[in-house]
């Protein structure tokens, strides 16, 4: 487990206490559990089927590589119907726009200290109307760009001391912020804050008390917000609890019970090192994606080189586990721990793989007796370790 450094320095909430609602304990009463789907995950008992029984299509897109768009690390992706936005916060320090064929289109914004520039990238988000890409600057600034790359507006957030790890626009009126450490030691320290919008910054409600203690300060490295379709979801850190963030409150959507595993309890006397040792011995949730009809949960299993996953059909309530077998060798690339999974369309999710990872697996999949030569030749023709990442699109049966 890697400790994630707080990446977003946004400041709104202390000043907002005076402008918005009175932040009393009542404002924490915004979590509804009655509609939660409870799933018992026993990886030894859920029926196991090949990849090809769970997904009816897989495609790949090689992102164009030239001096204008060299990507070192993919920290985050956002997909629309026409474009793929890639943020490299660590090396290129840029946001790149590609079309759905992987062709480079343009950079969005640039680093600098000017009014139309960002000082340091934190994260990116799609606006509620899906017409703008929002770049979140470390310097408490939101930059709204259209897909042509023109800056349409800049929103400066108030000054204070809150460290936010992510934001998302929930709808036309709300913007949600998240921080592991909460507001202050004196308060109940909620991690989730929902405000009327970026300009007014009036807090509507807070929810989900922090998991951090005096001894335990790490987070689990999973990007907190996921925007699938028009909805924003939040996974509470170090739990198997999932929430839908809405206008009137935060609704619990899923509660998983992992038989023989799950995140260890965080007690007042447990520290970071002890917790990581416990994690290395148990089955935990790796990542997730919510599509229109199905949900996919990936799991990390000790001493297992790949990450088994379970597909839950929300209409029928059925669950199936991937056996790890496949006819199509492209299923070898179905998961990565480095970048959050994103959706494209209703029931397709997107995974990025660095070029060196794709090359590393070349020998293995070419040795499969079930290879598709033409497909693999297109994937590997001219591919080098210096190429930009390859995106894999997995369409789930539903």
Could you name the CATH homologous superfamily? TolB, C-terminal domain
Largest sheet: 6 strands, mixed
What is the helical fraction, as a range of percent? Answer: under 10%
Mean pLDDT, as a whole number? 84
Could you say how many structural domains there are in total?
Answer: 1
CATH class: Mainly Beta
Helical run tally: 6
Radius of gyration: 21 Å
Distance N terminus to C terminus?
33 Å
Q: What structural class do the secondary elements suggest? A: mainly beta
Cα shape: globular
| Content of β-strand | 35-45%
Q: Please tally the β strands and state the result.
A: 27
Low-confidence stretches: 1-28
Give the CATH topology.
Neuraminidase
CATH architecture: 6 Propeller
Protein name: 6-bladed beta-propeller
Pfam families: DUF5128
Topology:
Layout lengths: L12 H7 L11 E2 L4 E5 L6 E2 L1 H4 E8 L13 E4 L3 E6 L5 E6 L4 E4 L13 E6 L5 E6 L3 E6 L4 E6 L9 E4 L5 E4 L11 E6 L7 E7 L15 E4 L2 E5 L5 E5 L4 E9 L13 H8 L4 E7 L3 E7 L8 E5 L5 E4 L19 E2 L4 E6 L1 H6 L1 H5 L6 H8 L9 E7 L2
Parallel strand pairs: 1-20, 2-20, 3-24
Antiparallel strand pairs: 4-27, 5-6, 6-7, 7-8, 9-10, 10-11, 11-12, 13-14, 14-15, 15-16, 17-18, 18-19, 19-20, 21-22, 22-23, 23-24, 25-26, 26-27
């Amino acid at each position: 487990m890697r400790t994630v450094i707080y990446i977003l320095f946004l400041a709104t909430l202390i000043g907002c206490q005076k402008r918005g609602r009175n932040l009393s304990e009542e404002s924490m009463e915004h979590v509804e559990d009655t509609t939660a789907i409870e799933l018992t995950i026993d990886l030894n008992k859920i029926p196991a089927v090949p990849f090809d029984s769970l997904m009816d299509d897989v495609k790949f897109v090689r992102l164009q590589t030239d001096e204008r768009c060299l990507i070192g690390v993919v920290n985050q992706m956002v997909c629309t119907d026409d474009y793929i936005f890639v943020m490299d916060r660590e090396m290129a320090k840029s946001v790149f726009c590609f079309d759905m064929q992987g062709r480079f289109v343009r950079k969005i914004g640039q680093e600098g200290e000017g009014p139309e520039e960002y000082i340091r990238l934190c994260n990116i988000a799609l606006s509620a109307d899906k017409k703008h890409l929002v770049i979140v600057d470390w310097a408490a600034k939101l930059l709204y760009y259209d897909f042509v790359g023109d800056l349409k507006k800049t929103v400066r957030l108030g000054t204070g001391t809150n460290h936010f790890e992510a934001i998302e626009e929930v709808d036309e009126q709300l913007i949600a912020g998240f921080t592991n450490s909460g507001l202050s030691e004196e308060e109940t320290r909620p991690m989730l804050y929902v405000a009327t919008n970026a300009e007014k910054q009036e807090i509507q409600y807070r929810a989900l008390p922090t998991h951090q203690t005096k001894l335990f300060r790490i987070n689990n490295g999973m990007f907190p917000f996921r925007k699938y379709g028009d909805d924003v979801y939040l996974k509470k850190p170090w739990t198997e609890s999932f929430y839908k963030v809405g206008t009137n409150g935060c609704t619990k959507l899923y509660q998983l019970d992992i038989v023989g595993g799950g995140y260890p309890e965080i007690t007042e006397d447990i520290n970071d090192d002890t917790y990581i040792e416990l994690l290395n011995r148990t089955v935990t949730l790796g990542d997730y994606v919510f599509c229109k009809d199905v949900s996919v949960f990936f799991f990390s299993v000790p001493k297992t080189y790949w990450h088994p996953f379970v597909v839950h059909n929300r209409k029928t309530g059925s669950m199936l586990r991937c056996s790890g077998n496949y006819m199509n060798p492209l299923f070898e690339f179905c998961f990565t721990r480095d970048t959050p999974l994103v959706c494209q369309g209703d029931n397709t999710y997107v995974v990025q793989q660095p070029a060196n990872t794709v090359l590393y697996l070349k020998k293995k999949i070419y040795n499969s007796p079930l290879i598709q030569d033409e497909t693999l030749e297109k994937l590997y023709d001219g591919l080098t370790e210096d190429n930009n990442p390859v995106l894999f699109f997995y369409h789930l049966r539903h």
